[in-house]
Write a sequence for this structure.
């Protein structure tokens, strides 16, 4: 699956400014998100990468020590969160905190993304 033309320059610039280990995690998550669905649109808003399809789906929020893969309707994903990865107590948003590249659970993350897209289609 090609990502050509689907990645925005502002996100490239955002990632370039991150510490090296956080860059690697952020790039890996970005690739997973984009490759999980050709429907997702990458945008740079609220000072971070956001991905949408029929509404907001997920975002990447990087800090010096970790990356949060957040879901705008994360509270609705908790029933499929058998590994209890989702964190947060807000009204709707939840996130997965990733501190090491080894923490990325590819199939679990893809499942969350696909379910978040399905929620927006409903």
């Amino acid at each position: 699956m090609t990502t050509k033309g689907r990645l925005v320059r502002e996100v490239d610039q955002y990632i370039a400014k991150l510490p090296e280990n956080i860059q690697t995690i952020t790039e890996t998550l970005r690739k997973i998100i984009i490759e999980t669905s050709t429907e997702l649109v990458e945008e740079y808003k609220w000072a971070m990468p956001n991905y949408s399809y029929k509404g907001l789906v997920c975002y990447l929020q990087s800090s010096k020590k970790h990356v949060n893969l957040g879901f705008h309707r994360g509270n609705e994903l908790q029933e499929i969160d058998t590994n209890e990865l989702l964190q947060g107590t807000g009204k709707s948003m939840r996130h997965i905190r990733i501190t090491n590249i080894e923490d990325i659970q590819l199939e679990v993350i893809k499942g969350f993304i696909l379910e978040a897209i399905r929620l927006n289609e409903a």
Remarks:
- The domain at 9-121 is CATH 3.90.1150.200 (Aspartate Aminotransferase, domain 1).
- The chain has a mean pLDDT of 94.
